């Protein structure tokens, strides 16, 4: 169940990053999705019956997500700078970077 939620969150992050135009609330959406994904990862990794295969899968998926965020870093940064609340946006970007690692 939780892995399914993780997959859905990853898909939403990917869709958001690959969108032709980022929505105005892009910074908040991205931060929320990345934070939710981080919570799901913690839930999965704390399961008592966690198998090595699931652990390896989550680690690999986290690397893919980190690479995706890195790949879009310049575009994300440009969007955050354009945002009306650029100071707040830059702190959101910093949070996103921390959760993505």
From TrEMBL:
Domain of life per record: Bacteria
Key words of the record: Cell projection, Cilium, Flagellum
Name assigned to this protein: Flagellar biosynthesis protein FliS
Lineage of source species: Bacteria, Pseudomonadati, Pseudomonadota, Gammaproteobacteria, Vibrionales
């Amino acid at each position: 169940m939780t892995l399914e939620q993780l997959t859905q969150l990853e898909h939403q992050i990917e869709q958001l990053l690959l969108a032709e135009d980022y929505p105005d609330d892009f910074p908040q959406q991205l931060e929320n999705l990345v934070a939710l994904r981080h919570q799901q990862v913690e839930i999965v990794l704390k399961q008592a019956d966690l198998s090595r295969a699931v652990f390896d899968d989550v680690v690999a998926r986290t690397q893919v997500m980190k690479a995706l965020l890195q790949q879009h870093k310049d575009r994300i940064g440009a969007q955050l700078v354009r945002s009306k609340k650029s100071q707040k946006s830059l702190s959101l970007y910093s949070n996103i970077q921390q959760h993505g690692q």
